[in-house]
Amino acid sequence: MPKMEDVTYGAPCWLDLATSDPERAATFYGGLFGWNAEDMGEEYGNYNILSKSEAGVAGMMRKGDDMQGMPDTWTVYLAVEDAAATAEKVKGAGGQVMLDVMDVRELGAMAIVSDPSGAVVGLWQPKEHRGFDLVDEAGAPVWHELLTRDIAAATAFYGKVLDVEIVDMLMEGGPAYKTINIDGKERAGIMDAAEGILPEGVPSYWNSYFGVDDTDAAVAKAQELGGSVLAPAEDTPFGRFAVLADPMGASFAVISVGE
């Protein structure tokens, strides 16, 4: 089982779902990925840890009153050494702090920010909770990418705020694509989604991919469980993938890791 043994600052380290129906979401993702949901109790706002074989892969919470009217959504968190200092860098780089830095007891500190293209992303300063327990296999996170309407602004922003290298990925055809590289490894992607990728009215956003053994089977299972298909399955050099939505509308991608 691939595990994240160490924190890689600047890279995605966690993600969570803000949902209008935690019970139905737990049933959906449990049926699709084999996840279990564990309520951490009132002291943590009844936040749920979603796990596969006792390894934490994501979190889930009920949308608060301040989020009513907003769509259900997954939020990606980037690991940072100092959440408060990084939030200040966000302001200086043209972004906005949407949720000020707050301590999450002994687990860590967090903030929610938006980049200059409007994409929302979390910052996580790890303490006892260091992030994913499991990655890069079926039922676990595999990849995270920003679909942005302003790739130049996004590239400058994340390079400055995270102090990371962002390089062009050479691909034949298709939109421009860059990767966030840390210690010589590709950690996340940034896609130019301004033309023909994002539907009219859909803002820039971070998308996460979960591994599956069989993409077509996962698409069929998601529909059986009440989900929907936003982009049908197609082959890529990195695996067969599809974009789905859970029954409440939160979007995510699945990609084959079984071949």
Description:
Strand 14 (228-234) and strand 15 form a beta hairpin. The chain folds into two domains: 12-126, 2,3-Dihydroxybiphenyl 1,2-Dioxygenase, domain 1 (Roll), CATH 3.10.180.10; 141-256, 2,3-Dihydroxybiphenyl 1,2-Dioxygenase, domain 1, CATH 3.10.180. It has 259 residues and is of the alpha+beta class. The relative contact order is 0.17. It has four helices and 16 strands. It is 17% helix and 41% strand. Strands 2-3-4-1-5-8-7-6 form an eight-stranded mixed β-sheet, with helices on one face. An eight-stranded mixed β-sheet has the order 10-11-12-9-13-16-15-14, with helices on one face.
List keywords for this structure.
8-stranded mixed beta sheet, alpha+beta, 16 strands, 259 residues, 17% helix, 2,3-Dihydroxybiphenyl 1,2-Dioxygenase, domain 1, globular, single chain
Strand line-up of the largest beta sheet: 2-3-4-1-5-8-7-6
Report the span from N to C terminus: 16 Å
What is the SS-derived class? alpha+beta
Task: Give the SSE order as H and E letters.
Answer: EHEEEEHEEEEHEEEEHEEE
Which descriptor suits the 3D outline?
globular
Strand content: 35-45%
Q: What composes the largest sheet?
A: 8 strands, mixed
Low-confidence stretches: none
CATH topology of the largest domain: 2,3-Dihydroxybiphenyl 1,2-Dioxygenase, domain 1
Tally of individual domains: 2
Second CATH tier, the architecture of the largest domain:
Roll
The gyration radius over C-alpha positions equals 17 Å
What is the top-level CATH class of the largest domain?
Answer: Alpha Beta
What do we call the CATH homologous superfamily of the largest domain? 2,3-Dihydroxybiphenyl 1,2-Dioxygenase, domain 1
The residue-averaged pLDDT reads 94
Please tally the helical runs, counting DSSP H or I stretches of 4 or more residues: 4
The tally of beta strands, per DSSP, is 16
The helix content, as a percent range, equals: 10-25%
